[in-house]
Request: fold
Amino acid sequence: VQLQASGGGLVQAGGSLRLSCAASGRTFGTFGMGWFRQAPGKGREFVADITWNGEKTYYADSVKGRFTISGDNAKDTVYLQMNSLKPEDTAFYYCAARITEALVYDYWGQGTQVTVSS
Reply:
């Protein structure tokens, strides 16, 4: 499974961005997709996750109410709509895929940079 993230950029605080993660290859074996981020000098942080059937979503407390994860099975693509962005959301955002119900990820994509200016 190959994952390609896109949609990052520079935005002012309070603004919005939508990230996309397109999956290709043997995607039929995946159970769900997640987004992670890593800011300079910090560890990788879980952001959100969705099962491919859309029945379950998970969010980090730091993004609840501001970020929304969604998926398009027909396009094998997962989106992360990010609203009310804050400077502390600045990070490199990665997408990942898992093949089980557990939030343990098996495939990782290249990320996209999100920078929020104050």
Observations:
- The radius of gyration is 13 Å.
- The chain has no helices and eleven strands.
- Residues 67 and 82 are 4 Å apart (CA to CA).
